[in-house]
Design brief:
The structure holds two protein chains of two kinds. By secondary structure, chain A is α/β, with parallel strands linked by helices. Chain A is built from nine helices and eleven strands. Classes of the chains: A alpha/beta, B mainly alpha. Magnesium ion (MG) binds near residues 65, 66, 106 and 183 of chain A.
């Protein structure tokens, strides 16, 4: 695959709906640590995401991936270290005025009191981008891309988990973001839909140079479309490199994480530390 | 010490929320639909219970007045007592208590669940300030609907008193003398006085309930705890503010 060798080459993001151009956005995470009370969730994480890059974050559940994304989205403030989106502090309102950033939440976070259609239309309506006709076109286009256009008039509580996820991705697309953060976008989807999501992420990069940061357990997505992959374990970034480098890695934790062997003779759960077996 | 801190923190965040919501006041015309929806929820759906409650407050006031004034042979003044206490105190107070229980709890439950299920975070990342679309329309709606509820509460309460005055044999005065006394002693100023109180109480109830809802942390269990806290805080604040506002308006 060529994706891993393709450098982020375009410097402008083009709005997929209106064609308007803006500068592509970079992300810099520098010495980021986060504690919730006494619990250290992120420990001294540093990495850079170039404009128009697809950056994948993998790691076991509970390793702090969602918390890391929330920092980049400006929803959490670091205990120490800094996060910069396009050079700006993402927790500030001025930054949100400047940079269009969308986060696809792990659980969807759809507005329960609004229909699927209104969930998508809220952003363009509030920011007065276009008349109701233009908005409707954009919303239906995004729903169609994710094959959920038939659910436009349903409410989130009437949707399955995978449909919520797709609506939530569609909602992010309608925002025409410069920076798109995905929290496990393919986790509840069938393999074909998963491949579709990978194609959407790659297309947004190639045609519109949208910067994407994708938290995922989906190895195909990570190894085919990404430019770089970071692996997070227990709040530490233990590896950072291209998919090619990752595949060649000899580090046992990474080998085991990417290709876990099912070993019935020596099951993992029996190797857990116990009082007699520390 | 911890409690004092929590109270100060709560008061501080309430003021911050008010300032933030206020800073978007200019967006209100564009939020017409949300404002109307909140007027409906705060005003219209509260009306039946306000009506029932006010009627019975009026009747009890008339009964008690009849009982205590009989000794002075001053039963003709029942109307003045019902009129004044309803307009100046019980109308605003009881309507606000109902507002806290009925509307305030619903506001906190809704906003707390939006917070817990990351809907509020989603709004933030979309650069749509929660104070603007979740808080401002509710604050504006309560300011508009409170006077309506109070006018209703007063009229129904006064009427309730007149029913008792006329038909309960231990009281037994004519509707004419009841309303004559009511009209003579209950001035427009008294009604406005009660209205001002109600505006303050209602506004504070909605602000407190929004603030506690938006500051909910943790999982679904916290939603219930937040609702309880919001209603209790509202009731305490109504009682404390009642003294100070009454004193201020004297
Ligand atoms: N708001 C919070 N308060 C306290 N602990 C939290 C909070 N959010 C996440 N955590 C803890 O941080 C750790 C990492 O969580 P998360 O980032 O959601 O993991 P994942 O990698 O599966 O997305 C977990 O141990 C979780 O319990
Ligand atoms: Mg997660």
């Amino acid at each position: 695959m060529s994706a891993e060798t393709t450098e982020a080459n375009c410097s402008k993001t083009r709005n997929p709906f209106t064609g308007v151009e803006a500068d592509a956005v970079s992300v810099r995470v520098d010495g980021l640590s986060k504690k919730f009370g006494d619990l250290a969730v992120l420990r001294n994480i540093s990495f850079d995401v170039k404009p128009g890059e697809i950056f994948v974050i993998m790691g076991p559940s509970g390793s702090g991936k969602s918390v890391l994304l929330r920092h980049i989205a400006g929803l959490e403030a670091p205990t120490s270290g800094t996060v910069a989106v396009d050079g700006l502090d993402p927790t500030l309102e001025e930054t949100r005025d400047r940079v269009r950033l969308a986060l696809v939440f792990q659980e969807g976070a759809l507005f329960n009191s609004l229909s699927v259609y209104d969930n998508l239309a809220l952003y363009p309506r509030e920011h007065r981008s276009g008349n109701e006709m233009a908005i409707s076109e954009r919303v239906m286009h995004a729903l169609k891309i994710l094959s959920v256009e038939k659910s436009a008039n349903q409410f989130p509580s009437e949707l399955s988990g995978g449909m919520k996820k797709r609506v939530s991705i569609a909602r992010a697309l309608v925002m025409e973001p410069q920076l798109l953060l995905y929290d496990e976008p393919t986790s509840e989807l069938d393999p074909v839909m998963g491949a579709t999501i990978s194609e959407i992420i790659a297309t947004l990069k190639n045609e519109y140079s949208v910067t994407s940061i994708v938290v995922t357990h989906d190895r195909d997505l990570a190894l085919t479309i990404s430019n770089r992959v970071g692996i997070l374990m227990a709040g530490k970034l233990i590896s950072l490199g291209t998919p090619g480098e990752l595949r060649k890695s000899q580090e046992p934790r990474i080998v085991d994480f990417l290709n876990p062997k099912i070993d019935i003779e020596h099951p993992r759960f029996k190797q857990l530390e116990t009082p007699e077996n520390p | 010490m911890k409690q004092i801190n929590a109270v100060l923190e709560g008061a501080g965040s309430m003021v911050m929320l008010l300032l933030r919501a206020g800073s978007y006041a200019g967006s209100l015309p564009r939020q017409w639909a949300r404002f109307v929806e909140q007027c409906y929820l705060i005003g219209y759906t509260t009306l039946p219970i306000v009506t029932i409650l006010s009627f019975f407050i009026g009747t009890v006031l008339a009964l008690e007045a009849g009982y205590s004034m009989e000794g002075f042979g001053a039963k003709e003044f029942i109307g003045s007592l019902v009129g004044l206490s309803m307009a100046r105190e019980l109308g605003p107070m009881m309507t606000s208590v109902l507002l806290a229980g009925r509307v305030g709890s619903a506001i906190t439950a809704e906003l707390a669940s939006m917070k817990v299920y990351h809907e509020v975070d989603a709004l933030t990342t979309m650069n749509i300030p929660p104070a603007k679309i979740l808080v401002l329309p509710r604050l504006a709606a309560v300011l508009v609907m409170m006077p309506v509820l109070i006018v209703f509460a007063n009229i129904v309460g006064w009427f309730g008193g007149s029913v008792v005055a006329r038909y309960v044999s231990s009281v037994g005065i004519s509707s004419e003398s009841y309303f004559a006394a009511l009209r003579h002693y209950t001035k427009f100023k008294d009604v406005m006085n009660g209205m001002a109180k109600a505006e303050v109480f209602g506004f504070v109830v909605v602000l407190v309930c929004c603030n506690i809802g938006l500051n909910t942390r943790g999982g679904p269990r916290e939603i219930g705890a937040a609702v309880t806290r919001a209603v209790v805080t509202s009731l305490i604040l109504i009682l404390i503010l009642d003294y100070f506002v009454t004193k201020l308006l004297m």
